[in-house]
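Q: What residues go here?
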């Protein structure tokens, strides 16, 4: 009788781990999971494909350049040259250098330049003289008049050079030559600054020059004869007639001179007052100071023909007539 041997299982509750067989004939274990109802392939959403746009560096640079392109149009009827109605300077609109020059020039023409401590410290070294003090203007403000040589150097010379450049641009005049500056004096009218008690404003400038001769201004009757002679023929009026010999200075204002050169000691090549300070008597006070002190110990009288202007502007002509009462002469600069 055979004896029965019972085999006791110690892992009856565990599932047997199936390991892949190394035998070639063994098939790989199935990894397919059981799908529930409704989970078929026909119900799965389509897989989105990533779209890549591959461009070369040259194409990218070309596109970036095309993005900043702008369409330009030529406006033939519109001029880029502008003329400021305040300072009268013509400049090119859109040009940084021209616009910067215009802003600085227009500010100096309207409000003038400043005279501060730096100029005062140097004043004694270069011979700056105070001609008059506490000079009252029509608006009640008080100022002073100083004088120095026009060919001075240093900081004051640089200040005067900028001031003369502004005056020349405003009057459309050429720069004064070195010979003229050597024989000239600068007269400045200063008033206290409203923003800084240690600084003053330059509200007027006169350049007085030593000259030898000048021409007298033709009277209205002589000017009228000049106009009539222009309408007459050469046979009606001989060239020796006095009306033929008048020198035309400015046809707009009707300014003519007799050609005879008469001895005249003082000439005024430049006269300027900023627009914000005009009609206050600044120009006449500067001219009177120059006539009284230009030649030491010898005051000059414009009524007697001791003072002459260069070719004046319309405003300069009015000042010349009012201040000199018809006695101021004209000379060639």
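A:
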């Amino acid at each position: 009788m055979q004896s029965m041997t019972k085999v006791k299982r110690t892992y009856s509750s565990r599932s047997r781990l199936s390991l892949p067989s190394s035998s070639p004939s063994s098939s790989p274990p199935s990894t397919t999971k059981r799908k529930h109802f409704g989970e078929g392939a026909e119900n799965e959403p389509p897989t989105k494909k990533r779209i890549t746009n591959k461009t070369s560096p040259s194409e990218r640079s070309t596109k970036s350049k095309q993005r900043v392109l702008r369409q330009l149009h030529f406006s033939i009827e519109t001029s880029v040259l502008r003329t400021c109605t305040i300072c009268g300077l013509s400049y090119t609109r859109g040009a940084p250098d021209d616009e910067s020059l215009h802003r600085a020039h227009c500010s100096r023409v309207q409000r003038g330049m400043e005279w501060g401590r730096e100029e005062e410290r140097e004043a004694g070294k270069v011979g700056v003289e105070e001609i008059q003090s506490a000079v009252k203007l029509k608006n009640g403000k008080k100022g002073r008049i100083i004088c120095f040589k026009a060919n001075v150097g240093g900081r004051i010379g640089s200040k005067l050079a900028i001031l003369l450049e502004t005056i020349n641009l405003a009057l459309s005049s050429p720069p004064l030559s070195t010979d003229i500056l050597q024989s000239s004096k600068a007269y400045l009218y200063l008033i206290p600054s409203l923003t800084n008690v240690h600084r003053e404003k330059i509200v007027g400038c006169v350049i007085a020059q030593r000259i030898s001769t000048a021409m007298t201004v033709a009277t209205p009757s002589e000017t009228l004869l000049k106009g009539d002679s222009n309408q007459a023929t050469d046979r009606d009026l001989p060239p020796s007639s006095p009306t033929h010999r008048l020198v035309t200075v400015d046809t707009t204002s009707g300014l003519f001179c007799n050609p005879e050169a008469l001895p005249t000691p003082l000439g005024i090549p430049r006269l300027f007052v900023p627009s914000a300070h005009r009609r206050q008597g600044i120009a006449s006070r500067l001219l009177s100071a120059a006539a009284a002190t230009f030649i030491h110990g010898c005051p000059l009288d414009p009524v007697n023909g001791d003072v002459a202007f260069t070719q004046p502007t319309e405003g300069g002509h009015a000042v010349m007539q009012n201040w000199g009462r018809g006695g101021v002469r004209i000379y060639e600069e």
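A: Context that may help when evaluating the design: Confidence is low (pLDDT under 50) at residues 15-19, 21-27. Residues 103 and 200 are 21 Å apart (CA to CA).
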